Structures are given as structure tokens and as C-alpha cells.
């Protein structure tokens, strides 16, 4: 067998594999395999690659494609695309029926009274799972905005606060699911940027590790993934480019075209529409549990709130989107 025969054989093998698994294998990769299989024939990867390029016509072939098969073969040998987000919803288990939903706690800018009022109501309603729909932490220290040292000191123990708070929720409700919001990402994104120059910190950036405590059963969901609770879908809100506008709930419904509960805008709003075929779709924007007068936006229309969602075994659900004003729940 000549070098070209070996090259032709392995190329065919990988084209078959690629077609079978809907993947592709780059010539550089195939060359490393070829060289390791026949070190006596190919003295290095470069030599193997040269043979592969020769048999695949990479040195310039004048033939014009007449068949789709030829195109399929060529695509099988193109490098794979990079995939940044592998979308996969987090589906809440069937054993859970009543969710206590909170978001935009922005620790340690949280509002203690509102938070306690909300949790008390969740307990009273016998919720069996707590869903945190993003922005549990503020990560003020990693913000690109101006920082105040008197405030910054509170954030040195933000991690301990988060671990203690998650433990409190776990003890209170049994199960906790924590979906990342844009603020929860602040630390991760900063560390990922730093990891380019400091490879030794790679793998340490995930907030799931940062907030982990002994006996934690908290599930952490990536910010680009939905949480599905029956037929209700949760997004934080930053997943859609642009703010929510004034009509947050309505706007998010026109984007979701499905049942959606969201956060991020710090206001309580509901919207409901009937489709051409008589199906109802709802959108709920849930209020926040942080301070209502932050330094960067002291005047706003925010309100405190939380939600309770009950679902049956068919996935049908009932929403109570609650507002807290002066310690009273509406
Ligand atoms: Mn947010």
C-alpha cells in the first residue's frame, strides 16, 4: 500500500463516521490519527496531513462538483463549528406542585422586610420548591460602574450571605432551583476574561461552585436556559436584547409566543392573549426583593413582589403574581 492508499482509507473511514453521527472531522485531526496508526510510514503529522490533503484534492482540483455526495464528503472533512450555548431547558420534576418564585434579590442590596414577608407567604402557601429567577447576587464589586468603599465592604461577605440564604431556602422549601441572571454572571464573565491570561484559574469561575455549601441540593441553571414548570416557562428577562419597555409583560409575551414568567424589570405586570385557535397565553413580570432606591437609579417605578405557581399533573397551572407594598401583600 502506498501513502495515498492509507490516506484514502482513513479519509473514507472518517467520512462514514461523520455522516453516521452528523458531525465532521478536520483533516488536521485525521492526520494525527493516521500518523499514530502508521508511525513507520508517516514520520510526523505534517507528512500524514500532506497525504490527506493530496487524496482529498486540497492541492487544487479542476473537477466541478456534479453530485451532492461530493459536497457531503467535503463537509464531512470541514472543522466542526464552535457551539457557545447548548440550549436545554431545566424541567422541574413532576413531584413538585407548588413553586415559590423570587427574583432580583440583588444581595446585599436586598430588602430584608420584603424578603421575609415573601418567604413567610411561601411557607403559608405550603410551596414545595423555590425557584430563584435570576439576580440573587448583585456582585457590586465586579460592576463597571463607580463604587463606594463604604458600600463595597458589605460585599466582602457576599459569598457567605449567598450560601447561608440558599441553605435557609433549602431548609424551608426542600428544593431550590437557581437560574442565573445577568448580575449573577458578573463574576463569571470577569474570571473568564482573566483566565485568558491566567490559565490556572480556568474552571473556578462558575457561580455554582461559588455558592455551593455542605449538603446543598440546589440546582443551578445557566442564564440562557429556560426553566419549565409544567406549561410555564421562566426566563430572567435579559435573554432578550433590549429592555422590557413600559409594557414589560406584554412585550415579553410577543417575544416568547408562549407562557412566560420573567424578572429583571423589577415591576409586577400581567398580560394575557387568546390565539386564533382559542389558546390562551400569559406573561407575568414579577416584582423585585431589593432596595427600591439604588444609587444608580434612585427614582424608578419598581415594586416588591414574588409569585406562587401551582400546577397539576397535566402541566396546567395557576399564577398568583403578588405585590408587596408597605409590608402588605396584594
Ligand atoms: Mn437582571
Give the arrangement of secondary structure elements:
Layout: H1 3-21, H2 27-37, H3 45-55, H4 68-76, E1 90-91, E2 98-102, H5 112-124, E3 129-133, H6 149-152, H7 158-173, E4 176-179, H8 185-195, H9 207-210, E5 219-221, E6 227-229, E7 232-234, H10 248-256, E8 260-262, E9 269-274, E10 280-285, E11 304-311, E12 317-325, E13 328-329
Parallel strand pairs: 1-6, 2-3, 3-4, 4-5, 7-8, 8-10
Antiparallel strand pairs: 2-11, 6-7, 9-10, 11-12, 12-13
Alpha carbon gap, first and last residue: 82 Å
CATH topology of the largest domain: Purple Acid Phosphatase, chain A, domain 2
Q: Tell me the helix content.
A: 25-40%
Average per-residue pLDDT, rounded, comes to 94
Oligomeric form: single chain
The largest beta-sheet arranges its strands as: 5-4-3-2-11-12-13
Count of structural domains = 2
CATH superfamily of the largest domain: Metallo-dependent phosphatases
Please state roughly what percent of the residues sit in beta strands, choosing from under 5%, 5-15%, 15-25%, 25-35%, 35-45% or over 45%. Answer: 15-25%
Number of helices: 10
Bound molecules: manganese (II) ion
Q: Could you say what the CATH architecture of the largest domain is? A: 4-Layer Sandwich
Would you tell me the structural class of the helices and strands? alpha/beta
Query: Which CATH class of the largest domain applies here?
Result: Alpha Beta
Number of strands: 13
The description of the largest β-sheet is:
7 strands, mixed
